[in-house]
Write a structure and sequence with these properties.
Elements: H1 2-23, E1 34-39, H2 47-62, E2 66-71, H3 74-82, E3 88-90, H4 93-99, E4 105-113, E5 116-117, E6 119-120, E7 122-127, H5 135-141, E8 146-149, H6 155-167, E9 178-181, H7 185-194, E10 199-203, H8 206-212, E11 221-226, E12 230-231, E13 234-238, H9 243-259, H10 261-269, E14 278-282, H11 289-296
Parallel strand pairs: 1-2, 1-3, 8-9, 8-10
Antiparallel strand pairs: 3-13, 4-5, 4-13, 4-14, 6-12, 7-10, 7-11
Helix pairs in contact: 2-9, 2-10, 3-4, 9-10
Length: 304
């Protein structure tokens, strides 16, 4: 029995070492396999297939193995970066801001439109068949309402609507009957539709894909408030990753629209109807300073 245990332990250690070696950086900061952290996005039709096509494109372009590391939420993606399980990541703006509190990340690219970053918006919603029809109704009845955010690291589903609610005198931690985190954008919308939450927070991009997937009807959800535009998600790299490799990864994304436009078009089409003129563009840290300022101004915000 002791020999069996020893053998089993040796096999486990060998497997662990192999796993570590595959993603570990060598003395030049280059991994054997490049890993990309992404959110599962369960229920989003076609996204896994497109991501797999992107992975294959990057692998061929970079001439090295590339793997996707899936997490249930953006907090999990941050942890994957922190634990060196992911070298680069497709991450929401606020998740990037949170992550850079404890580690150095380099934004490589973001989606652009005619040389300007693509933007999206945060929305606060209610059930279209209910009695909450305006934000004045929310203010009047907040003590009887259940508020649903998406997850702590979500930009449109947490940071931006939290800041707005605070600005109109509704502290999400005290002003409502209950405040919950739904887990993802789909669940946040479905919780409002089902009545689990009275009001919810999400992105305006979610409705088209949920309607297309027949998860909601056009008349199920009422939009109570819409934010100013938010700069789209950056694709970021850990600072320790080889600088030349980072430049090659960046260039691979920039070249995608010329070399494999059908992949980029399929990805964009999942979220928006107009896929023309969309392509990756160089990103930089200053694009997210506005979010840092918002996050820094919310004393009750705890998203580490």
């Amino acid at each position: 029995m002791k020999k069996l245990i020893t053998a089993a332990a040796f096999i486990a250690l060998t497997a662990l070492a192999a796993c570590k070696n595959k993603t570990a950086l060598d003395s030049n900061g280059v991994p054997e396999t490049l890993t990309i952290g992404v959110v599962q996005s369960e229920g989003v039709e076609g996204i896994k297939q497109v991501r797999e096509q992107m992975r294959d494109y990057l692998s061929k372009k970079l001439n090295m193995p590339v793997e996707l590391v899936y997490s249930n939420d953006y907090t999990g993606v941050i942890e994957a970066l922190r634990a060196n399980k992911a070298h680069i990541a497709d991450i929401q703006p606020f998740a990037y801001v949170i992550a850079t509190r404890t580690m150095k990340l380099n934004p490589l690219v973001t989606l652009g439109n005619n040389g300007k970053p693509v933007t999206y918006k945060s929305v606060i919603i209610s059930n279209a068949h209910g009695n909450i029809k305006t934000m004045d109704d929310v203010k009047a009845h907040s003590k009887n309402l259940v508020l649903g955010f998406v997850e702590p690291a979500s930009t449109s589903g947490h940071l931006i609507p939290r800041a707005y609610l605070n600005s109109i005198g509704l502290n999400p931690d005290t002003a409502f009957k209950q405040t919950i985190f739904a887990g993802n954008h789909l669940t946040s919308v479905l919780s409002v539709k089902s009545g689990k939450t009275d009001i919810g927070c999400t992105t305006n991009l979610i409705f088209m894909l949920m309607t297309k997937a027949k998860m909601i009807n056009d008349d199920d959800i009422r939009i109570l408030w819409t934010s100013d535009p938010i700069v789209s998600d950056p694709i970021v790299a850990k600072a320790e990753l080889n600088k030349d490799l980072q430049k090659r990864i960046q260039q691979a994304y920039l070249d995608m629209n010329k070399e494999r436009p059908e992949i980029l078009k399929a990805y964009v089409k999942i979220f928006i109807k107009d896929t023309t003129r969309r392509s990756y563009m160089v990103s930089n840290d200053t694009l997210y300073n506005g979010l840092r300022k918002i996050a820094g101004g919310i004393k009750s915000l705890k998203a580490n």
